[in-house]
Write a structure and sequence with these properties.
By secondary structure, this protein is mainly alpha-helical. It is built from 16 helices and no strands.
């Protein structure tokens, strides 16, 4: 019993650690556009987001119930299985954070849970219908719905504000953007904090501490809310840089439309119990807002890298979790090996991240790695277009040396034949 209590405590602590990584990994979802447009200062933005994430954790338990009661069969699930699932999810979160890619923490958790469950109890222990209807379909639909909504909202916003005073309009949209960012933070706490609640509840049921089909206890709700709030306040500055500057250049009108669209989609899915990826929703809305403004562009090289990460999230987390569960199957020493590996890998990723520090002081200062250079077509056209008649280009002028002034009193230079 002592050994079991220890593994259950390890699972709960690891779940809260995942919740913490979820917080700083997904801060960009709520605050990247607000920070990039200058509506809020970076530290103020993440502090506001942290508080609203905590509040949102208490609004619903529908998503938590989807995870703890619907995705996998509770019978035969051991605490070690859940620990292995969390290892896969945490490592994927940290790796994508390191490279600044806004991948889905939700799908990392789902993939880890599925991989560990299959390794422990076989494919029959995964409820395929729930996986398809409440995880995979929303994963595809969410960015499309949010993107289309943001695109049309952006066009409508510019059309309605065409005759408005420029400065007053921009000030109003910045205020609206702050309000919509708060709504996204609230929605994120409502949706994402519940996933950790569901995992901890599933562990408590697997350990015999809770009866099957139980709702998350209050201490689970509180601890999950606090963990995601602390992670949010830390700020995932690398991903904020990608989301705010790497996908498109946003004006306050676009930021307002993007965040309002994303918040609506996330809150609706939480009410229906869909384990939606807030990252997918917000990324889709940002791209939609970029396409909605006349002359706006989406940097598809960055978007393509992000799409690849989305496609790899479920299988990569599942594979790591399955391997971790296999090692945990050797007994207590196997679980200890996995725990040491998780800690060492996390420390190594953090050390690598210190080579190029991104924080609130420089989040808007640098170009995103892999970002498309602006004005490439314009530069290419300019390079092959002849200058107007009667003008000399800077390059041509630079290539012709200026005559050297001579002293009239000096004797003429001798020439040799």
């Amino acid at each position: 019993m002592e050994s079991f209590s220890l593994i259950l405590a390890i699972v709960v602590v690891t779940a809260l650690a995942f919740d913490f990584t979820n917080g700083f990994h997904d801060t960009a979802n709520a605050m990247a556009t607000t920070i990039s447009t200058g509506a809020l200062k970076p530290k103020v933005a993440v502090a506001m987001s942290a508080v609203l994430n905590l509040v949102g954790a208490f609004l619903s338990v529908e998503v938590a119930n989807t995870i703890s009661k619907g995705l996998v069969d509770e019978a035969g699930i051991r605490p070690e299985v859940i620990f292995a699932a969390l290892v896969g999810a945490i490592l994927w979160n940290l790796l994508t954070w390191l490279v600044g890619l806004p991948s889905s923490s939700s799908h990392a958790l789902m993939g880890g849970l599925i991989g560990a469950t299959v390794a422990s109890a076989g494919f029959g222990a995964v409820h395929g219908e729930v996986l398809v209807t409440k995880v995979l379909i929303p994963a595809i639909a969410a960015p499309l719905v949010a993107g289309l909504a943001a695109m049309f909202a952006t066009r409508l916003t510019y059309r309605l504000g065409k005759k408005a005073d420029g400065k007053a309009s921009e000030k109003g949209y910045r205020a609206g953007q702050i309000a919509s960012a708060g709504l996204v933070s609230l929605a994120h706490g409502t949706n994402d904090a519940q996933k950790t609640m569901g995992i901890i509840t599933l562990a408590l049921v697997a350990g015999g501490t809770l009866a099957p089909d139980s709702d998350p206890p209050m201490w689970v709700i509180l601890s999950a809310g606090v963990a995601i709030a602390l992670g949010t306040y830390l700020g995932g500055w690398r991903i904020i840089r990608t989301m705010g500057k790497g996908l498109t250049d946003l004006q306050p009108q676009q930021g307002f439309a993007a965040q309002t669209s994303a918040a609506t989609v996330i809150l609706a899915s939480s009410h229906l119990g869909f384990s939606l990826s807030t990252t997918h929703s917000v990324s889709g809305s940002v791209m939609g807002a970029g396409l909605g403004r006349k002359g706006g562009v989406v940097r598809w090289s960055t978007a393509t890298r992000m799409f690849i990460a989305w496609g790899l999230t479920l299988p990569a987390a599942a594979l790591v979790a399955a391997l971790a569960e296999w090692i945990c199957g050797f007994g207590d020493w196997g679980t200890a090996v996995v725990a040491v590996f998780l800690i060492a890998s996390s420390a190594a990723i953090w050390k690598v991240s210190r080579r190029e520090v991104v924080d609130h002081t420089n989040v808007n200062d640098h170009d995103v790695p892999g970002e498309e250079a602006s004005g490439v077509v314009t530069q290419a056209i300019a390079a092959v277009t002849p200058p107007p008649a009667g003008t000399v280009t800077d390059e041509l002028a630079a290539s012709i040396p200026a005559p050297v002034p001579t002293d009239p009193a000096a004797p003429p230079a001798k020439t040799t034949v």
